[in-house]
Amino acid sequence: MHAALQALAPRLVPGGGEIGDLRRLSGGASQETWAFVVNDGARPTPLILRRRPAHALGEAEGRALPLAMEARLIRAAAAQGAPTPDVVHVCAVEDGLGEAYVMARVAGETLGSRIVRNEAFAKVRPGLARRCGEVLARIHATPLDPLAELPMSDAASELARYEAVYRGLDARRPVFEAAFAHLKAHAPPLVRPVLAHGDFRNGNLIVDPERGLAAVLDWELAHRGDPAEDLGWICVNSWRFGEHRKPVGGFGTYEDLLEGYAAAGGEPPSLERLLYWQMLGSLKWGVMCLMMYASYAAGADLSVERAMIGRRASETEIDLVALLERAA
Hints:
The chain is an alpha+beta fold. It has two domains: 2-104, Phosphorylase Kinase, domain 1; 112-327, Alpha-Beta Complex (Aminoglycoside 3'-phosphotransferase, Chain: A, domain 2), CATH 3.90.1200.10. It has helices at residues 2-12, 67-79, 112-117, 125-140, 155-168, 174-185, 227-233, 254-263, 271-297, 304-311, 313-327; strands at residues 18-24, 32-39, 44-51, 87-90, 100-104, 194-196, 205-208, 212-216, 223-225. β7 and β8 form a beta hairpin.
């Protein structure tokens, strides 16, 4: 990999330079993320390589977009004013790096527990929910005509996909059964499809202590879908890191999120529709947790991380009971 990046250096930085500080970053079960710098004699240029491994794990496997398409989406959303890393180069076969692209490295934090708790982010936290609404409105304003090959998904198809996975696991979860029944009975029609990010949440957002939301990452699950899907996903309790009274990412309110969405030109959904997608998001994450435990139990992935995430299915049951009670 070092040799391939070295050969590519003149296309990454004018004049090229020496590749240094190459290291694999943590996180990213379905894609590899590598940090490196190009030392061009003046100052190092920090870059990120996003690369599909030989075998990907996780819910995104089989659904993830080609990385060239992902890079194209990032550029399209950036043109609408969404904060994204600059895509520097989309790799070709002859680059020797496999399916990959290189982007600029953006300073900031992605770990949700730090963003919602650390004093360093106290100044930007009060405005983060509104800013998330603004950014989602920009993403959803991206023209769909050039992106016709993106998959389409609505509430009914998402439910069908995850129920099929759930049934295949032969699970016996009464709360999940109740949630599937409720969501199927109240599934809203898809009226106005937009470019949905598909995984807009803590962990995929870079937050800077001074600038706030600095970049949106991990576009592999992007699709044409309901704008309320993204708005509901960031409100799932699992992404709040203990700050359960602040429904938007553990740092803000529904009102701030929707006001920011409207202020940036979006047509905000009703709170009822957002809460529907929040419930569906909690159910989806619960099924994913069951999948991860099943992978661990079958010996396919014996990492402690898989087993620990698998145990979190019970957390989503608590969330679903609260949301079902609210809906009633």
